[in-house]
Amino acid sequence: MLEVKNLKAYIDVDAGVVKAVDDVSFSIKAGETVGIVGESGSGKSVLALSLMQLNPKPPVFYPQGEILFEGQNLLTMKESELRKIRGNKISMIFQDPMSSLNPIFRIEKQLIEAIRTHQDLSRKDAERKAIELLTDVGIPDPERRMRDYPHQFSGGMRQRVMIAIALACRPKLLIADEPTTALDVTIQAQILELLASIQKKYGTAIIIITHDLGVVAKLADRVMVMYSGRIVEEGSTADIFYRTSMPYTWSLLRSMPNIGSAGNERLVPIQGQPPNLITPPKGCNFNPRCLFAGPECLEVDPVLAERGNGHLAACVLSQREFNERKRQLEAVEREGVRG
Amino acid sequence: MIKYTLRRLFSLIPVMFIVSIIVFMIVHLTPGNPATLILGEESTKESVAQLEKQLGLDKPLLVQFFYWLKNILMGDFGQSVYSSEPVLRIILNHIGPTFSLTIFALILILLIAIPTAIFVVWKRNSLLDPLFISVTLLGVSIPEFWFAILLVLGFAVTFPIFPVAGYAAFGDGVLNWIYHLFLPAFVLAAVEIGLVARMLRDGMLEAVNQDYIRTARAKGVKESIVLMKHVFSNALIPTTTVIATIVAGLMGGTVIIETIFTIPGIGQLLIDSIYRRDYPVIQGVILFIAAIYVLVNLFVDLLYTFLDPRIRYD
Prior knowledge:
The complex is a heterodimer of chains A (339) and B (314).
Chain A: E1 2-13, E2 16-28, E3 33-37, H1 44-52, E4 60-69, E5 72-73, H2 79-85, E6 90-93, H3 107-118, H4 123-136, H5 142-145, H6 155-167, E7 173-177, H7 185-202, E8 205-210, H8 213-219, E9 222-227, E10 230-236, H9 237-242, H10 247-254, E11 305-308, E12 311-313, H11 319-338
Parallel strand pairs in A: 3-8, 3-9, 6-7, 7-8
Antiparallel strand pairs in A: 1-2, 1-4, 4-5, 9-10, 10-12, 11-12
Helix pairs in contact in A: 3-4, 3-6, 4-6, 6-7
Chain B: H1 2-29, H2 34-39, H3 45-55, H4 61-73, H5 87-122, H6 128-141, H7 144-158, H8 174-207, H9 211-218, H10 223-251, H11 255-260, H12 266-275, H13 279-307
Helix pairs in contact in B: 1-13, 5-8, 5-10, 5-13, 6-8, 7-8, 8-10, 9-10, 10-13, 12-13
């Protein structure tokens, strides 16, 4: 349904050109849930906005690539054509529900706008539809709440309203950019459950963008790990969590708390900063922070290579070499803890 | 809301009381005896004494003040020393032209500033924006009197499209009213258009990058509607304050323009009264202008609750 081919999205800033998305390819099948994981500044939000063609142009430009949605290339599409897709076939929810709703319009108005932009409905029918949508996303007493303004809702409720707006036209693809980051933990779980139930009920494909591997583990069928504007590992959720194939993903997993574990496991932060995307490091972008980096990594810029069925990773180490190094390092660290 | 309005109205009392003290003191702070000032140096002792009695100047200051205040509260602003007419009636006679001029100028300001600002924000990445900033700066910097004379020269003398001066009441025909007021209103508007358009542009440029604007775009809403509906309404809130100040300023009489175009408004009344040392009228006009300012500000505060639902006073 959605196919991204060799997409580059660069940002023109005073200091130079930021390669925010650098030669990314992937595809999404109808009804699938795909997670895109990465640190802040890995280019995941720019990628998400590219899919909606909502990056401000300038400074963002697309020197290369195709975004094929149902066979049509969004990059070459006219603005008026794009508008027919936005909010209709592809919709998006954003990180901060506190600021994503217009503060001076009633929820009703903002929902009805989403409905009537793409559907030829009377005000009455649109209003009925709006109530349905709000009920769908679990807002109690929707007839009354509809007349309220955004500031009269809590963060979680606002994100539900955002989801209702995104679902207004039964999109085929829903892009959720850090949908739970700004919410507290109990609310996070509720929103994730809501997204899962929508996925089940309507068969909407969901791209969930997050820095939180827990979110991905809960929702996604497939995961793409992004680092410095590129996809560095891609595979089923099980591949990523249990058959990790490259150092960055592994470091990311080690930096995340795990409720299932005994509780004496140490969290290991990833040292250093994400690379400067104006002048990326020579060789592999991750080499300055990589615990396994060898002389080869300063020279070779690895590309995604097959590691299993549908499992791709970008690393000069083979799976066997990687597993070996990992085992060695973990053994040394265990010694260190004991000693 | 009603409670808030009442409370705000109530809080006007101390403000107006302080204003009235200042206005009252005008007469007594100007050097010399007011009665002599009014009547001139060559007046006789008897006539001065008589005027002092008429104005109540022979009583202690505090008594004079409360006596004056009591009369004002009962709607008696005193009498003009010059024409012996009641001050209130004189002011009411001069409100019409000033009010007309204000409304006309305000319509021109909004009619030009709003579409210009929206257009500039729409083309925000082009060279139009720096051009717009220069033009508005020029507009704000133009001296009113110079621009007025220039326009009169151009559109009343060289090309006699509009009259050189004069005023026609609204009741004498709308076209005639527009015909007489166009030039003065345009001069008044010209100076403020730049200010309002600039405020709107700044507000819109700030709003245009907000998350909720991205949401509107993500819905597939047309860019023109995004700008006019979502961006504009959010930018209107800070701009309203500026518009209110302008309206209050215009309602308070536009001394220069009314003088140049001989429009018998509040501004001209004030100037004439100062020349005539007509203290009761001066006091009345200043009180009136102060009241307009205070009321316009109150009105705007109440208007905010409609423009921005987050503002609730109760």
